Amino acid sequence: MSKPLRHLLNLVDQPSALVEELVRDAARLRADFRAAGPSETLHGRTAALFFEKPSLRTRVTFEVAMIQTGGSTVILDPASVSIGKRESVHDAAKSLSRWVDCIVARTFTQALVDDLARHASVPVINALTDEEHPCQALAFGQMMLERRGSLRGARVAFVGDGNNVANSLAALAGHCGMHFTLACPKGYEQPPALLKKVEALCAITGGSYKQTYDPIEAVRDADVIYTDVWVSMGEEDQAAEKTKNFHPYQVNAALLAAAPETCVVTHCLPAHPGEEITQEVMDSARYVAFDEAENRLHAQKAVLLHLIRG
User: What's 274's DSSP letter?
Assistant: First the structure.
């Protein structure tokens, strides 16, 4: 077993052995739940959920994950709690640490999640920021592990914006020896500081990182095509410009025809049919986004158990 995790703020800075362990644990927890149902592993434990951004999958799966392991949740309404506004992050983190066993935060800035972890004496989980979405990447890794039996050598083509989901997926690929390619328009590449870390991981694990402006090139040997919305939360003022720039990067039948016949398509959801992906692709047997969505529940269980129980 790897060294216990203190917080989950991103994936790229974690030990590779730990990331792989979390993916394996998520798959085991899914199998255990199907075989035996809920457990009492986190009986009497409580997670506080602070969500600045709207959420369906992340909020429901964290709440249900705690329920299915015997724990409970407290929802912190950002309009009334206002961490970092009504009161300092320092005071909020110190107070919450006296009452709950874990803080789950979905925020705009990475700095807010990092500050919570800096001052809290309980674990803090990044449930999405503008820079990272580690739990989504773990659920994707679980899905790929269940489909392939191993993550080593898997080829992932991310077609779209070099955003928070792409950042966490690239980190996962680096940790697990996968081959990651980003296809995006010029100006939407991933941060150089992140890529330096990903490439260092790839040098150890045998994975690889590539960036291209040609989506056809990206999917030519892909095992899975990943896409996400073109306009993320908080970017609504960029909608017209981004829609124009990303139109050639739509995941449609023509793009899928350029990929191997065994290639599948996934999405972190919610999807916008007719924009980043077509309804035709979403209705096809090759669309596996809901398998990944189901795994959010078990990937987050793995994180909660690791953090709260050590």
Answer: T
pLDDT, tens digit, 9 for 90 and up, residues 178-231 = 999 999 999 999 999 999 999 999 999 999 999 999 999 999 999 999 999 998
**Local structure of residue 52 (DSSP, 8 states):** S
Rounded Cα distance between 106 and 129, Å, is: 6
Could you tell me the residue ranges of all domains in the chain?
16-132+296-309, 136-292
| Active site members | 106, 133, 136, 228, 268, 296
Runs of H (alpha helix) within the chain: 16-36, 57-68, 78-81, 89-99, 110-119, 134-148, 164-176, 192-205, 215-219, 239-246, 253-257, 279-282, 289-309
- pTM of the predicted model as reported, rounded to 2 decimal places: 0.96
Whether 16-132+296-309 shares its CATH topology with 136-292 is answered yes
Architecture of the domain made up of 16-132+296-309: 3-Layer(aba) Sandwich (3.40)
Taking the domain 136-292, which CATH number applies?
3.40.50.1370
